[in-house]
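Thread: Modeling a multi-component assembly for a lab meeting

Hi all, long-time lurker, first post. My supervisor asked me to bring a structural picture of a complex we are working on to next week's group meeting, and I have zero experience with this. I have the sequence lines for every component (714 residues in total). Could someone generate the structure of the whole assembly? Inputs are pasted exactly as I received them:
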Amino acid sequence: MTNPLSTGATIGILGGGQLGRMLSVAASRLGFKTCIYEPGGDSPASHVANYHFQKGYDDLDALKQFAQSVGVITYEFENIPTSALDALEAIKPIHPNRTALATSQDRLTEKDFLASLGLKTAPYADVTDAASLEAAIATIGTPAILKTRRMGYDGKGQSRLKSPDDAVKALADMNGAPAILEGFVDFSHEVSVIAARSLDGAVSCYDPGENVHSDGILSTTTVPANLTSAQRTDAVLLAAQILNALDYVGVLGVELFVTPQGLIVNEIAPRVHNSGHWTQNGCTICQFEQHIRAIAGWPLGDGSRHSDVVMENLIGDDVLRIPDIAKTTDAIHLYGKADAKPGRKMGHVNRITGHAS
Amino acid sequence: MTNPLSTGATIGILGGGQLGRMLSVAASRLGFKTCIYEPGGDSPASHVANYHFQKGYDDLDALKQFAQSVGVITYEFENIPTSALDALEAIKPIHPNRTALATSQDRLTEKDFLASLGLKTAPYADVTDAASLEAAIATIGTPAILKTRRMGYDGKGQSRLKSPDDAVKALADMNGAPAILEGFVDFSHEVSVIAARSLDGAVSCYDPGENVHSDGILSTTTVPANLTSAQRTDAVLLAAQILNALDYVGVLGVELFVTPQGLIVNEIAPRVHNSGHWTQNGCTICQFEQHIRAIAGWPLGDGSRHSDVVMENLIGDDVLRIPDIAKTTDAIHLYGKADAKPGRKMGHVNRITGHAS
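Re: Modeling a multi-component assembly
Sure thing. I ran the full set together rather than chain by chain. Output:
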């Protein structure tokens, strides 16, 4: 794709969750139609999209039809089968690109990539069996955390080692999946940068947000984050370095630990990110529109922040508070999910706490 | 409807244009599904709605099915056939109510209603034939403007009389439709108030915007409007008076002429209004969400303005400027219409011009 996608064209989105839903809405503002590829029915994104391919990722015919019906393809989750990506990419461009996806799909590849850029990460080691875990513990020490290399999110696929005695259980928790051992980082708080890069290489970062997790799931993001001016600059520079190294097109989320020794990269997500939801009410152009602009070959929008915001996730039964929240000044964003299961992200609210200074 | 509509319910919208499109998007933020009733295919609203009844307003079976499939019904245009409204209202509540619709559908009824509240309007007189037009001219004088009582919008169905000599042509322009003659008002500028009233009678008004028209179509709305503090208060009070008198539920647009003698009501529109599009980027809760909240029986949202905004309509070929506009900080809102016909509203942009003081 060398020319910008014209308004009226259709954007293909792999995945029908809340990120796809909010991407669809943002795309509609720019006059685009959207087509969701999602095996499940009644998905959050399908409610607001023009078209829905309710097909599996192993249905090559459906994937081909989907690719032929759209102008460009993006995704809202990382764990897309390689065979599906191969079939799609043969027909239409996929943004962000396969390198970005492959890098972030695998914790070891990701850490190696970040280290190759000279960026700081938690100490880590490849773990394939009991012997390599023992060696990793000898190098990294405990406490540490064993994580599957692939498919982990929101704290799943992880096992903590308080001492070397926990090694056997932790390895069993991996269910035979390749893993990495990560040392703990002594950080004061976590921030994230939502960064965007356009097809012509322009980069724009939103102000970093400060994240608080609960039970391994993001609970709140607050902007502005508690950072020095130098830390803010570092955060933007390292995000841009990552985007450029990946020849990235779209929005990327970069999670950072703030430590006395500087910013340490926790992980990157090659997509719009939960910690960027505050941009919907804190900026004129939100992360979802920024992503659509980038993958459509449009210029990036203005990511300036006009307001201070606290974003709070509504997890499971939190959504039952909506009647009370509706009486406040909070901006409500619900995902149209029917069942408020424990741990399920049902929506979020953005509380404006003041004008940006 | 005595209980608030629960998130997950479906809201029925009559009309598939850009107002229905933006109402659908706002409804999705609150977790509602939407169902559009629109005879035309590929309509702006159907792109972002869950369901679309592509049926005529004379199809009583389709209207009944539509009403049975939704929790509440609203509309994005006024000229809905009475027989359709009767069929729908027998099954589900319609907000805003029939009184509001009947009042605003007919310029004479509207003027009589406003006069009954003691509000100022342009001088007007009922015109049914040549004799009544002659009498009207004798009372009101010229210049004046003859307007059909019903079905007029964006300057259509109107004929100007520079002198009494234009009477014959003006009457012919009405094509036999009942009309009213309106005297000209010597106003300095036009402003509008976007006002909302909830099911339990709470009222909330957005800051008035100042409107500039071109060829009878709204061109720009600027907030804040050029008004004294007393005029602002008057505008809010008269809007609330209108809402309460109509036992109104939803968002109402009130167009006002600013004159040395005070504010004169030009017309009211029982729906979200083009002159309220600035709220999408100037407020946390926009007019579309405010309308959805009201008709769903939810509390009204916070209509405070955080930014100064200039809204500019993109009419016809204006939309060809989008590639250049995309390079600016303007927020783009396109309607997904394929053909940029002259006079057709294709989208709008909101330019943030500063923090609200």
